[in-house]
Design brief:
The protein is α+β, with helices and mostly antiparallel strands and about 150 residues long. Helix content is about 25%, strand content about 40%.
């Protein structure tokens, strides 16, 4: 098996997205918490059983019952209703650490969510592409939920 040379470029990940939501800031922040936590689901609609402890140092994790699950991250910062930041391995079962940041601001007609996911670790190009797709789906659910409240 050939080993791929590890360079800074292929060991890093940066995903930036802007999500325009036609809903007030506080409603959008609540929808974000819901979708990252108990409303989080797979693309086919299956619940991921996610939980968030919404305070600095709190956990963001998948609760599979009977003491089983996966730690995704810890809450690094929370400033209601404008900032939500996590740090941790997320879903990865390989050496990988992420910083996930949501900044929310009022704009004409609603809220702008500025999303940034930066990471360092061993992750394939296929997984990187899947992450971008996954975040897009999540953010679309946040937008829809906030706009229907």
């Amino acid at each position: 098996m050939l080993a791929t040379e590890q360079t800074l470029e292929n060991l890093t990940l940066t995903i930036n997205q802007e999500i325009h939501v036609q809903a007030p800031l506080d409603v959008t922040f609540a929808a974000l918490l819901e979708q990252l936590g108990p409303g989080n689901e797979t693309p086919d609609g299956k619940s991921l059983s996610m939980k968030i402890e919404p305070w600095p140092g709190g956990r963001w994790y998948r609760d599979m019952g009977d003491g089983n699950g996966h730690l995704w991250a810890h809450v690094k910062a929370i400033m209601r209703p404008t900032l939500r930041e996590f740090v941790g391995p997320l879903f990865a079962s390989f050496p990988f650490v992420s910083n996930v940041q949501y900044r929310l601001s009022e704009v004409d007609g609603g809220t702008l969510i500025t999303f940034r996911h930066t990471a360092l670790g061993f992750v394939s190009d296929e997984h990187k592409a899947g992450m971008d797709k996954g975040w897009n789906a999540m953010h679309e659910r946040v937008r829809k939920q906030a706009e229907t409240r």
